[in-house]
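re the bet — no i am not wrong, look at it urself. input seq straight from the record:
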Amino acid sequence: MSSRFRSALFLAALVLAGSAAAEERELRVCADPDNLPYSRADGSGFENRIAELIAADMHAKLVYAWMPLRRGFVRKTVGAGLCDVFIGVPAHFERVATTHPYYRSSYVFVTRRGDGVHSFDDPRLTKVRVGVQLIGNDLAATPPGHALALRGATRNVEGFTVFGDGPAAERLVRAIAEGALDMGLVWGPQAGYFAALADPPLVLAPARAPPELAGMPFEFAIAMGVRRGNIALRDELDAILARRRADIDAILAAYHVPRTDRSSPSAAEERRVEAR
């Protein structure tokens, strides 16, 4: 074999290798770098874990577009072409095309063990110190805020804005654990994660809407979202969600996500994730 021929083969191999590398598939995920229990830059959130599972099933490289979850998040990420997938969005969120839901959760009451205010009709509600998450600029920005206002239980309420130092749910739950608050009303996935980290762990109970607010949703189905029009990717994600449902359920269980679409997670599911 001539040296010229060997050189030609070598160059052809380099071109083929470069072409294969260039064609490596990527799963580009939009995420907040400091938003536990969902996502964090170190990969410790449950949406990070689910994204890793999805990328592995697709034989794709997982790539993040990190951006704080603030006003304009969708427009600045998927809308700007920086990424392709949101791991968690409300089902039927109109700004994106959504998959079938893969879990459903609700707002919950968070209390110390033995402090059992678990209903908006409990007469003690107007006397206890209550923490709520503030998404907007007023107390009634969330369904629990509306319910508290309806019951006249606003005098001893403390709001925790999502734009504070660290996740609002973490600060709120810590205040309950330390005795600065008697209870809180928190979105379930956040409440479950931070309540389990408290010592001793705090107690959760579903927050049911009072009859006067029966039309206001206190629970939401969560799906994945992709750019509108990218139906092929949405359908591929739907197939993976169906195929890997047991693995995803195990991840949610390990992060203590309270769910209204199924019974409480089993210890076997938690061990399954912890063993990995």
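see?? The first helix runs from residue 3 to 22. told u. also The chain has nine helices and twelve strands. so pay up
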